[in-house]
Specification:
eight-stranded mixed sheet; single chain; alpha/beta
């Protein structure tokens, strides 16, 4: 086996090299890129011989069909002693063993595990990260341990230069299962027909540098020297064994697709014919969430209801103005769903999973839309453990904690919910059996208080209403047409949210035709919101129903106002209608700074009105901090009377 040109062996020969109590890591993402032949051979050896036993499995994402394939093959009692994984849902029998205290288990953030491979490869003791603070991964709240028999702390809370961090201990790896498309006899691996590259290089390096073994599953053997150097994803110096999958079904692109060249990036295909979604609860949620999309921004979409945003963006011709990404490493293109989730058709780039999480953790995401299984009055969200089921956090914690803005999306209740959309209104035909809005979530996968501390904008979108995270807790800010708060919302929650002045959700969401969302998101109609009365020298600005989601929106507003004032040629008085105006909480000061600039350069005075007591309060605070007289009134008549009192220029 040490002969450089003699690395191709059978699966059984490779698996025979694994010893009792080894630490094993394997690749794969949901249903894609799974070295199924190696999993099958390991299962076969254990069933036939009872060994190797006592293994530790380290797994970044879930890798299986939830029915026994992938890591689900490793459920046999005695095979595993310990599991460190981002997701348990893809191996339910392993999750059950953990729940029954038959194995030790840790559920850590997917990105952390992914980055820990690099720490292992570099001989480092672990990883410092803010990911997981104030969630169940934080050792003050459980340390990611999934059961009572797991007692060892592998996560520490530390303070460095007055900043909080978590330190994740690296676990040295003995065996790495990786997968590629082609290998030469020396073990150089290329991935031309793979949908994703994931962490195979880092995993191979982690095992090799620890003196372990690296087993690569491939589709074919090619002649030595025939793989171009830049196409070699894993160099042969890191690979001990190469196994050719002897059955095609053991080397499928994913469990639902044998091979799709568009997902591998080998061809580009037309995507304009993407199927239109029916107008149901899922589409209503996706449509409302799409109003939060950041033009020219980078976005991550989770599974379930959030996936619908891609279809809505395509319908609304928004796709050229946003870049969709997956935590698995796909950037751009049309995100795939179902068995192909994690990959993308016509992607701009496929990068390694650990580097994608570097990008996410560093603040590269402008927005994410993620699902929610449970939510409580503090804005905490649970997606990792609920209903007695250990699912796991996956990449949820990395993504939700670090995106510039977060939209949680899902139906208001679960289990049998049935609605109808009639004449632009929502009718609840049958309520779901299970409540999602609880007094306390079972497990904190997303911390509302930590998000508030960092002034992260967060909203919660359902088919019947929208909530916003505020310092006081969850506030009801929008309701769907046809929905009654006392009948359809409050009786189906375990707590009463803050209710001040909720507005109606945009009526376009509930009509089965294009919404014209591109004009809203790109602020193409802003100039239509301003008018000028020359006789009274008053500029009227109508921001009713307009949303300021990002600094770019306020910059667009500033530019439009400057252009309008320059055309007038003198300082003006201004009246602003802010009814149903929405502004992200982190933007109040930036908005006040714009008003200050306009007062210094273009306005005699400015006054505004809104029926929202909360908005009046927040604007008064923001303007007063800058020494600006707020002039925020409840009624339009009061705003106009104010101008008459001070004179009209």
């Amino acid at each position: 086996m040490n002969n450089k040109n003699n690395k191709v062996i059978t699966a059984d020969e490779a698996i025979a090299l694994i010893s009792e109590n080894d630490v094993l890591t394997t690749t794969g993402f949901v249903q894609s890129c799974i070295p199924e032949a190696l999993h099958a051979a390991l299962e076969k050896r254990f069933v036939e011989t009872g060994g190797p036993s006592g293994l530790t499995l380290i797994m970044t994402a879930g890798a299986g069909d939830s029915k026994g394939l992938g890591t689900g093959r490793l459920h046999h009692e005695g095979l595993l002693r310990r599991v460190i994984a981002g997701n348990f849902g893809r191996m339910p029998k392993v999750a059950q063993a953990a729940a029954e205290n038959k194995i030790l288990g840790y559920n850590l953030p997917q990105g952390v595990i992914s980055q820990l491979y690099r720490a292992c490869a570099a001989g480092q003791p672990g990883l410092f990260s803010k990911v997981g603070l104030y969630t169940y991964v934080d050792p003050r709240f459980g340390g990611g341990r999934v059961n009572e028999v797991t007692t060892e702390e592998i996560v520490k809370h530390v303070v460095i230069d007055e900043e909080e961090w978590l330190f994740y201990t690296a676990t040295k790896i003995d065996v790495a299962f990786i997968r590629g498309t082609s290998a030469d006899p020396s073990g150089n691996i290329s991935m031309e027909k793979e949908a994703l590259t994931l962490d195979v290089l880092a995993q191979a390096m982690a095992a090799h540098n620890n003196g372990g073994i690296v087993i690569a599953q491939v589709e074919r053997i090619v002649e030595a020297g025939s793989i171009r150097p830049k196409d070699v994803k894993v160099p042969g110096i890191l690979v001990d064994c190469v196994v050719v999958a002897d059955q095609p079904e053991l080397h499928r692109m994913n469990y639902g697709v044998m091979y799709n060249p568009a997902l591998a990036g080998e061809i580009r295909v037309p995507v304009e014919s993407m199927a239109k979604m029916p107008l149901d609860a899922r589409k209503i949620i996706a449509r409302r969430a799409a109003f939060e999309l950041p033009p020219n921004g980078v976005v991550n979409l989770g599974v379930g209801a959030p996936e619908g945003i891609a279809a809505v963006a395509n319908e609304e011709k928004l796709t050229p103005f946003i870049t969709l990404t997956t935590e698995a490493g796909a950037i751009g293109g049309v995100l795939a769903s179902g068995s192909s989730f994690g990959s993308a058709t016509n992607a701009d780039s496929i990068i390694d999973q650990n580097t994608q999480f570097d990008f996410y953790d560093g603040g590269g995401l402008d927005m994410t839309c993620l699902g929610m299984a449970e939510c409580d009055e503090q804005g905490n969200v649970n997606t990792s453990r609920f209903g007695g089921r250990l699912n796991g956090c996956g990449g949820f914690i990395n993504i939700s904690q670090n995106a510039r803005s977060v939209v949680f999306a899902g139906t208001f209740t679960a289990g049998g919910l049935d609605i109808a959309i009639q004449d632009g209104e929502v009718k609840i035909l049958k309520e779901g059996r299970a409540r999602k809005f609880l007094k306390f979530v079972e497990q904190v996968t997303f911390s509302g208080k930590y998000a508030q501390k960092r002034e992260q904008p967060v909203i919660y979108v359902t088919e019947r209403c929208v909530f916003q995270l505020t310092k006081e807790g969850l506030e009801l800010i929008e309701i769907a047409p046809g929905i009654d708060i006392e009948r359809d919302i409050l009786p189906h929650m375990d707590f009463k949210p803050i209710v001040k002045h909720p507005i109606l959700m945009d009526k376009r969401i509930f009509i089965d035709e294009p919404m014209g969302l591109i004009s809203d998101l790109l602020n193409l109609d802003l100039q239509d919101r301003v008018s000028y009365d020359a006789d009274r020298n008053i500029q009227f600005l109508n921001l009713e129903g307009w949303s300021a989601r990002s600094k770019r929106d306020i910059d667009d507003l500033r530019k439009m106002l400057i252009d309008a004032c320059q055309k007038i040629g003198k300082r003006v008085n201004q009246v602003v209608n802010l009814d149903n105006f929405r502004i992200s909480e982190h933007l109040y000061d930036y908005y006040a700074e714009m008003i200050q600039y306009m007062l210094e350069n273009y306005y005699v005075t400015t006054t505004r009105y809104t029926t929202s007591a909360f908005l009046r309060l927040k604007l008064k605070e923001a303007l007063s901090k800058r020494g600006i007289a707020p002039h925020v009134f409840e009624r339009k008549e009061d705003a106009h009377s104010f101008l008459e009192v001070i004179g009209e220029g």
